[in-house]
Amino acid sequence: MPLRTDTPRRVLVIAYYFPPMGLSGVQRTLKFVKYFSEFGWHPTVLTVQPRGYLAQDDSLLEDLEGRDVRIVRTAAAGPGKLVTKKQVVTFPSEWSRKLLSRLSDTVFIPDNKIGWKRKAVARALELARETPFDMIFATAPPFTDFLIGREIKRKLNIPLVLDYRDPWVDYPFKFYPTPVHKLLNIHLERRALRASSHIVTTNRKVKETILRRHRFLGYHDVDIVSQGFDPADFQKARSTPLEQRQRKAMRVTYAGVFWEDRKPDYFLRALAELQKEQPRLRGRIDAHFVGNFREENRKLVVRLGLHDTVTETGYLPHVDCIRELLVSDVLWMIVGDDLGSPGKTYEYIGAGKPILACAPEGFIKNAVLEAGGIVTAPDDVPAIKEALMNLYTRWERHELRGPEQEVIDGYNRVILTRSVVKIFESLLVET
């Protein structure tokens, strides 16, 4: 039976990124909000008007229809709102994105959403006067959300739970132009953590990093609640007929965007080399990319002679993305560090498909291996080529197998939300 309380509780969720904004960063928060009410908690989401963002998916809000969820939006913050009135902006080149990101890290501390803090705190206090909250749940990035949570807790004196979707100070792509920038971020993180009642991370490496830096925290102050998948998404995807494919080629699908060291170059080179060495495989392995494919990625595809092998769909609504996973034979992913926790990993597992992961040593590699997948180093072209050949041989023999159901069930979003609610309940007992 689900964990419920006799008296409905109210939680204020601070989430700058929230639907109809798209991309994977909103999924974790959306699904917690969706299922909180099933465990007796009624969420109010404090977020912003979607503007100047890279993707929009209006279908995501359908998840909340008929549920006791209130969404309160303020004006957006950050440089994006100054340069456009559009809700969706074009993906910049990777070079441009890097430059803008580094400029942002130089000018804004902790991030370029810091301008949201004052208006978010003021609106939260107005909401609390209307109907008091029992809990604050702040999810980041952006880490301005944590500073907002700290300030609200100071004003309202109710428990604050901080949810690290990614690490703060040790984020692999965080840029520190001077040692002072890093020290200021460490200082702000320490202040937020001291104010928190409990901390949640998506993986053990982030937990260990936090505990090592902030020695005033104890092991039991931080819980791991992993990323996951929502079974309802897969039920919805299957509610309409899936694409009927002729079995002419093994389809390898990637869902998501490419940036920093998460790029398709090594995978595409391996595929091109494999087709050159094994001409019979041309037309027998298809690579599908679901999401925003950059112009530099397209140029590489042409340069490698893979124009008849690669298909790009562009950004798709989430359920359509799930359908793409379900009609694929193999799901591919790349991650260059052992701190980030790509949500696609767990939706791949939820799809029940074989996974090829290009990942370093760490929890992502372990999760994929536990799911029966194949893992290579991110830049090891010969190993990726060998893995593709291995998978193709198994596909040809009808021997491809996905993860066991027991492994899949461990990443169910409903169960993961229950874990967060248990933390909420324990904090209320303590107070």
Description:
This protein folds into two domains: 239 residues, Glycogen Phosphorylase B (Rossmann fold, 3-Layer(aba) Sandwich); 179 residues, Glycogen Phosphorylase B (Rossmann fold). It has 16 helices and 13 strands. The chain starts with 8 loop residues before the first strand and ends with a helix. Helix 5 links the parallel strand 4 and strand 5. Helix 1 crosses helix 16, helix 5 runs parallel beside helix 6 and helix 9 packs across helix 14. The strands form two sheets. A seven-stranded parallel beta sheet has the order 3-2-1-4-5-6-7, sandwiched between helices. It is 41% helix and 15% strand. It has 431 residues and is of the alpha/beta class. The model has no long low-confidence stretch (mean pLDDT 90).
Annotation keywords:
431 residues; 16 helices; Rossmann fold
DSSP strand tally: 13
Output the number of helix runs: 16
Instruction: Please give the alpha-carbon distance between the first and last residues.
Output: 25 Å
Spatial order of the strands in the main sheet? 3-2-1-4-5-6-7
- The whole-number mean of residue pLDDT values reads 90
> In percent, how much strand structure appears in the residues?
15-25%
Question: From the helix content, strand content and strand pairing, which structural class follows?
Answer: alpha/beta
Q: What is the CATH H-level superfamily of the largest domain?
A: Glycogen Phosphorylase B
Helix content: 40-55%
Question: What is the CATH class of the largest domain?
Answer: Alpha Beta
Q: Largest sheet at a glance? A: 7 strands, parallel
| Poorly predicted runs | none
Taking Cα atoms only, what radius of gyration do you get, to the nearest Å? Answer: 22 Å
Order of helices and strands: EHEEHHHEHEHEHEHEHEHEHEHEHEHHH
CATH topology of the largest domain, by name, is: Rossmann fold
The global form is: globular
